[in-house]
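TA notes. Do not distribute before section.
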Amino acid sequence: MATEKRETGPVDNDIKLSDGPEHQVEIYIDPEMEKRIVRKFDWLVLPQFALILIIAFLDRTNIGNARIFGFEQDINRKGNEFANLSSFFYVTHVIFEVPWVLAVKAWGANLIISLAIVLWSAVTIGTGFIQNYRQGVACRLLLGFAEAGIFPALAFVISTVYPRHSQGKRVAVLSGATALSGAFGGLIAYGIQQKGTRRGLAAWRWLFIIEGSFSLVIGILCWASLPKACDEAWFLKSEERQLMKDRRARDVAYAGALEKFSWSHCNLAFTDVMVWVAALSLFCAGIPLFGYGIFLPTIIRGFGFSDTIVNVLTIPVYLMGCFILALGSWLSDKLRRRAAVMISVPLLVCTGYAIAIGTPSVGGGYFAMFLCSGVYTFNPLLLTWVANNIAPDTKRSAALPLLVSIANVSGIAASQVYPNSTAPRFIMGNGISLGMELLAGCGVVTTRRLNSAPRA
């Protein structure tokens, strides 16, 4: 990794590529054609990526919505078993992230991503028919496996398409989709909850069946609609495909040598100190992020709201999370100083958790959750910052899932910080989230200083 100044990337449209002092090739990149290609990806691929993440997080977090209307009672859950169900998802999620993303690089985005969607859709539908805790554990483990590489895979594809200085807003679209999925999840859950038992199946079972079926349709369609690679996209003309290949060569001349798959490049990712420092920061930020995503309905219910409106009350909170993320991403791209924005986000989130801990007020606690929705902003900004400064592609394709894998380990811990014994105010969970978010901010400061220091 290099300093943050590298984010500006190559700006010349006419540069010389060299494989030695005696061989230079001049490559011209038509700026108008390049802009036209980027717009095509914005209109034809980015919305698909956002939709994929919406359904992924719907199928991942709907267990939190289902908890509000009978899930725990129907499977005879005892003690802290709901938290354990949340934790089991991240066990396989962490283990299989790197293999999934490397598979995207090897066999193409359309095949691997659509396969993953079909797999997790089937598991989600199956969750609607479980009868006991053990079956729930099996479904969560399988769901974690199927969803493991989806976000880092999409982020990797984006890093191969867009210029460095404009990647932040695109990754923000993906991350915004995760927050938006919470709003959709609350709305869908509320609607299904009002319908009650149908055809002998409880409402929470229909939640899994309906959302899983929708995801299954999307997965099948993605096989035909997603490109295999950025320079093989079905919607590009032959000259546009050639430009994408030339532009990749241009970026490689700036960032690193053009390469085929190499285990040595993967090893570079695993031994880069900056990657591990960033990973620790992501781990810290992951605890409040995943705790918020799963337990927000439970936390809001703890403020004293009735079960019938809890899922509705999550909707504006998630929408605020989308707004904060959009603002932070816009500022980071505008200023091209991601570190400054990343340091400010934890301050906002910590303020929210401090209010939730310090006041028993129903209104005050609910307002605090709006501030805490900033948890969705930190990780995508840090991932973009790191992706912009790692080359070659194979190293990046290993580093990104490695970072997300370590961040997702925090999901195992986050699932345990809101035990039922601490209801209704969940001071312990909110306190841990505050502390870990603060440490994440400190991690950015440390990473920035180490990254700016002279390297031996």
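Switch to the second chain here.
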Amino acid sequence: MLVNGEAHRVNGASPNPLVHDYQRPLKIAIVGAGIGGLSSAIALRRQGHQVDLYEQSRLSNETGAAVHLAPNSNGLLRRWGIYAETFGANPAEHFKERDLHNKGGFDVDITKSQGQWQHPWQLVHRAYLHNEIRAAATSEDGPGAPAKVHVAAKVVGADPEKGTLELEDGTTVQADVILGADGIYSKMRKFVTGTDYKLFRSGKAAFRFLIPRAAVEADPVTAPLVDKKNQLGIWFGTDRRLVIYPCNDNQLLNFVCIHPDTESHATASDEWNKKGSIEQLLKVYQDFDPALLELIKKVHPDEVNVWQLLDMEVMPTWTNGKLALLGDAAHPFTPHQGQGAGQAMEDGAALGVVLPKGTSPEDVPERLRLYEQIRRERAHTIQEFSRQAGKDRIPGQPPAIQTT
């Protein structure tokens, strides 16, 4: 109840003996409104908390191409009332692998495996997914109060003990919980460890772009490369690979072209979009089958993006006082397992579990440490799987499984 404006624990035992019946909802400030930040907002609003997200961009043009929604991701989305097939997600039904000459390899009917999973494996446009998660976090409908997204709100400082954020415009935000969901270039890491954790090159970069499927199917040279809908295809060279999979109800083909970063001169940057060159792209893949090169040529030159694939040493901890990191801020992923978005969602869901309704502000630091204990081993294990899957091919040895 409230006494002189202050919240106090109410009488009566909580159904959960580890949670106090604290009446006031927690004030939660999330730095970053990407997939991880918004997933956390959904999970925490459902617990009745007051959630504000601070995003330095204006979110006017959420970029990126397609992403994987593995069964673990879809289990959470469906629990939150989000069904990706309603906004263009494709089921992953077929997988094929070929060499750079479009020879050899194998084909797998994934539909035989789909029945083993509780939820589907899907492929979806990142921007559409982001829009739906944002709507679920901020809609007036649904359990709890809507989360509020503050755009053009750059965070420049934080005090994990006091629970405060400093914005670039001089505003001070007071919160019971601070979550750093500001991605691979996170500025919140230094407030956890006291040092600015440095990213390092993985040795690879990726061109990414989308091509309309209709243009590919209309060309008899390229049509056989995409002979099945809902198919993920990978063409391997020794130190480079070309990955293609559909999104938008099979209307678009998403390309991920992973190669040695020295060949595209990609450099680390805070920008998600870094323009690449189609001439550069064709040079990197010049030894691939001519039909694959014709396929690549169908991209509009202005739509080729390239960035380095970066990695980071494992942090000693993700939490400090009232501050916790999640998603790529805590455990940046290379893309070779398609789990970056999924693990950020799992982080958000876990935070909703350890910070249920009735949690008192005094319990927050311990609760955030519990969150890390729950998530740390799983996230870092999958992170390492992704690193292994991205290794170059060695002739005569079986490849690591990868699903970029």
